[in-house]
Design a protein that fits this description.
The structure is a homodimer. Chain A is of the alpha/beta class. Chain A folds into 2 domains: 124 residues, NAD(P)-binding Rossmann-like Domain (Rossmann fold), CATH 3.40.50; 193 residues, Dihydrodipicolinate Reductase, domain 2, CATH 3.30.360. Chain A is built from 10 helices and 18 strands. In chain A, helix 4 links the parallel strand 4 and strand 5. In chain A, 58% of the residues are buried. At the A-B interface, helix 1, strand 7, strand 10, strand 11 and strand 12 of A face helix 1, strand 7, strand 10, strand 11 and strand 12 of B. Chains A, B: This is Oxidoreductase. Chains A, B: Belongs to the Gfo/Idh/MocA family. Chains A, B: It comes from Solanum tuberosum (Potato). Chains A, B: Pfam families: GFO_IDH_MocA, GFO_IDH_MocA_C3.
């Protein structure tokens, strides 16, 4: 597909996060918003206006209508998690490529239904984990993959937290058992789990053990939790995710030869430049009174925000499938499924009284 | 005691770490090295010369001789952990104040013997956890204690690791089951556990659970391990300690209102100035495309290195006891014992197949 034929997106629903992704689609050079659908046509109309959609954008009063539109190539699905399996499956059956918000499913069984449908219909699947697409992520991976600089991964810790206010903790879909039943684990833990798997070259841990005493709301939805992951080779990972702490987005990775640190991995402090920190070959000074060298700061510029790069990458894949008959890229469903497997294992461990849960792939 | 009457230290043994503490005693305004003892008088003589001890320093061919010297007020004990209980107890019985290297004992039962002997003999006890005495530590604590800036502690992670070379991993006392049987847990984990307790205002966790799959040497000594700690109020802590990873000395603490990060908490990168990072009241920018504010760097200067401040603080306490008949300061044995209790719990959890261990205080 030539760059002059952009991938035409349909947006399912008027979620707040869809405003960010709508802007990203507008910014991406190979994508355009073709349609938006909501259960209420008034809501969709207002939403299109508020978000500066082109006047040519089709406005529908149902999700089905978006899926039935032959001028929609791909859908972005920011619906509550409990609705993902229904709408992602229908989209795939209608041959729409699927960019799916996380958490992608309530469990891997549901996700497998989605992934199988995408595969059998030959459509691209990608979860909307935006930070994967920031050029900083590739730069950090270069460091982690360098056997001379970072060496072998020994330990990684990730935190993703933000502080929900009273309104959020009472009314947000992320704390509703019928909408996003995975709570903070699905919403924030998803990122930390992805970060840990990313650091580990997506090798699944052998065992996942939830940290004791997570916090729940009255409906039993997780508001904060954590887990430890182990790989049987001495490698360990831990994470903490929460709706009850100030914003923290950390990855702290220890290798045999170096360390990587980043403190804004999910959403960079600034949109156009993002920092990370490395140190390698550290040594202790005379009389053990100092440590050398101090960590180095790296700043990675980006012309497009990470969510636009995500749309661009997704649209490139869709373009290749449409234009050149390529097969869907398997990397994205594969790492999405691995992330979900770990999410499920943490949840299972919590339910089993913090017993270790083995991951069966 | 007037400042003109410095506390007279006896050094037991010629450990490498004693070189650092000898310099610290020389730097502290209220301390002096009065004697050094080794099992070999030749070794002690050479050591005194190499380390620039004053010609008036008494050189002894045994530890007993140091303890019998009436011109020794206090001893610094850098012997292998397995010898601590014998020599710290003897020192206390001879009315010498005790500055004890960590890990202070092989278990809390041994430590209690030491602490009881120190208490009944009215001598000051302090463990040689140097970073406690850096002015940065007090500045960081100010932030953590500020209910408006940091809020309530929700999560803390600490890593302390360094890479042992072949010589270290084969011959260092820290990997010998008859000398420092706690291995990396006692040597490196001690600091991370102390950091976690310090962050938690020394409130002991309810439960300690070792991370699965620590690494051991052939003699069964721990080379890397970790644990999670929980407090029953949703607060969690995790740590990783290792002889098998590049130097890392991290504390990453999440509060309900702010975050604290430090990456060289055990030994600062530089001797005379040490950084830490805070952020508070974070908020998400328009469309969730940026996070504000970026963390602030704080630099804390110190006129004396942290180990000299430790000697100064210890000597102040000893001076008050000697000169003014004060009672020994209980803070130091109390936090030492709590640290040991958590070390013991991690070890017990490892031995019990990573079962949770309740801390009984």
């Amino acid at each position: 597909m030539a760059e002059s034929t952009p991938v035409r997106f349909g947006i399912l629903g008027c979620a707040n996060i869809a405003r960010k992704v709508s802007r990203a689609i507008a910014l991406a050079p190979n994508a355009t918003i073709s349609a938006v659908g909501s259960r209420s046509i008034e809501k969709a109309t207002a939403y299109a206006k508020e978000n500066g959609y082109a006047s040519t954008t089709k406005i529908y009063g149902s999700y089905e209508a978006v899926l039935d539109d032959p001028e929609v190539d791909a859908v972005y699905v920011p619906l509550p998690t409990s609705l993902h399996v229904k709408w992602a499956v229908l989209a795939a059956q209608k041959k729409k490529h699927v960019l799916l918000e996380k958490p992608v499913a309530l469990n891997v069984k549901e996700l497998d239904v989605i992934l199988e449908e995408c595969e059998s219909n030959g459509v691209q699947y990608m979860d909307a984990t935006m930070w994967m697409h920031h050029p900083r992520t590739a730069k950090m991976k270069e460091f982690l993959s360098d056997s001379q600089r970072f060496g072998q991964l020994k330990s990684v810790h990730s935190t993703f937290a933000y502080l929900g206010d009273t309104e959020f903790l009472e009314n947000n879909i992320r704390v509703k058992s019928d909408l996003d039943a995975l709570g903070a684990l699905g919403d924030a833990g998803w990122y930390s789990i992805r970060a840990i798997l990313w650091t580990s070259d997506y090798e699944l841990p052998k065992t996942v053990t939830a940290l004791r005493d997570p916090e729940f709301n009255e409906a039993g939805v997780i508001l904060s939790c954590g887990a430890s992951l182990s790989w049987k080779d001495g490698r360990v990972a831990t994470f903490y995710c929460s709706f009850l702490a100030n914003i923290a987005m950390d990855i702290v990775a220890s290798g045999s030869k170096g360390n990587l640190r980043v403190h804004d991995f999910v959403v960079p402090f600034q949109e156009n430049v993002a920092p990370f920190y490395t140190v390698e070959g550290s040594w202790i000074g005379e009389l053990a009174t100092s440590i050398h060298p101090a960590p180095s700061e790296h700043q990675v510029n980006t012309d497009l925000p990470q969510e636009a790069l995500m749309v661009k990458e997704f649209s490139n894949l869709v373009g290749s499938i449409k234009g050149e008959g390529s097969k869907p890229e398997k990397k994205w469903p594969t790492i999405s499924r691995k992330t979900q497997l770990v999410v499920d294992a943490v949840k299972a461990s919590i339910e089993k009284g913090f017993e270790p849960v083995e991951i069966i792939y």
